[in-house]
Amino acid sequence: MKTQSDPDRLDQVASVSILAGLLSMTLGLCGAAVIGLYFGRNQEAVLVALFSIWLLPASLVVVYEGIMIAAGRLRAHAAIRIVADACGLGVTVAGLLAGWGVFALVAGRLAMQVMMLAACMGVVRWFPRPRLTRPLLGELLEFSCHIVSNRLIIFVRSYSGTLAVGSFLGLAEAGYYRAAERIVAAFSEMIGEPVRMLGWVVLRRVANLSGPDRGISKEIGTAATGFIVCAMAVSVPVYVGLALMSGSLVHIVLGDAWAPAAILVTLLSVKQILLVPGYLTEPLLSLSGTIRKMPPAIVTNSALSLLFILALAPFGMLAAAIGQCAAAVLSFIINVRLQSRYGAADWAGVLRRCVHPLFSVAAMVVVVALIGDIADASATSGLAVNALQVLMGSSVYVVTLATLQRLSGNSTPIFAFAHRPT
User: Fold this and answer.
1) What is the DSSP code string of 201-258?
2) Which residues contact 71 (CB under 8 A, 6 or more apart)?
3) Is the Cα dihedral 314, 320, 322, 328 positive or negative?
4) Which band of pLDDT confidence, cut at 50, 70 and 90, is reported for residue 216?
5) pTM greater than 0.85
6) What is the mean pLDDT of the chain?
């Protein structure tokens, strides 16, 4: 997604991806052989072998997804994902009904990946030719090291809270904490992945218009500023609504036995609001050629986050969640610094343009709380009340935001990032 649309470079990127997939698959198959022959666990060995085979098409699919995202073909990409997921689900269900057991899950995953690869090839109409040069290989390895290290650090950080809570407080509290994390993570994935993909598309388009050799430019910074405002305007009401309705959601999804997880969902939703701007840091620093600045910042933030968890987890899972919110504040500050210094993002402008969404969220909170109070006074509860809260809250937010934007005629529109620079 960072490179220019040069067929030779794309062939080399795909060649490296295929080699990485072959290497990963080979290592997995060797591990499966050891599990089967040395430990005598034949079923586990077959599972590992099947998952290892899945790695090869998966590595090539990533290249095609990157090409489609870079070209702005998000609608086709989404359609392919939906069809592939439906195919995988169909194979999984059919396998379970046929008595395949856990192997049905692997078969569904393989079917999904093969379908996605075939569909991407059909839409992109490009097949890579084996080609690799030493200069580009070095460039890819250097860039990939930064990206992989970022993801590994984030992965460790995401599971450290659950492990710390489980170590200090026991399995029950760890279960509540993990359940709350997964509920918030479901909404985070729903918001985060589109934001990340759109961020790449918007910033790459602006970078191409600005010229490939200019590095970071004022146009890219302006687009990044507008995109952050738009991402906050879309995501904040979702997370605030999740925090307000955490009790009802936990009751509906998990049952009354998981009620202690509701307050954790509220706190982790607040934490996630502070992490939303971070979705743009990777594409912004990548396009500006300063991606190497990101791993040290993430290491610092992760270390501080872990220290907060270790210090507060002995006082209960609620204290651990508060520690996560404090760590998110530090992450927010680090992302603001990186985006301002190396990505030319105007964070003063971001805060100024977020005033209208904040007032709109406040109006939404009032409406949702009033509906809840009326429902409690009339002893009414259930999905109907929750659906009314979602419908009225979202409607009030959109209407209030549109009204404020219209009344302040000289203010910059929320979706100003969508305009191409001149």
Assistant:
1) HHHHHHHHHH-TTS-S-HHHHHHHHHHHHHHHHHHHHHHHHHHHTHHHHHHHHT-GGG
2) 5
3) positive
4) low
5) no
6) 85
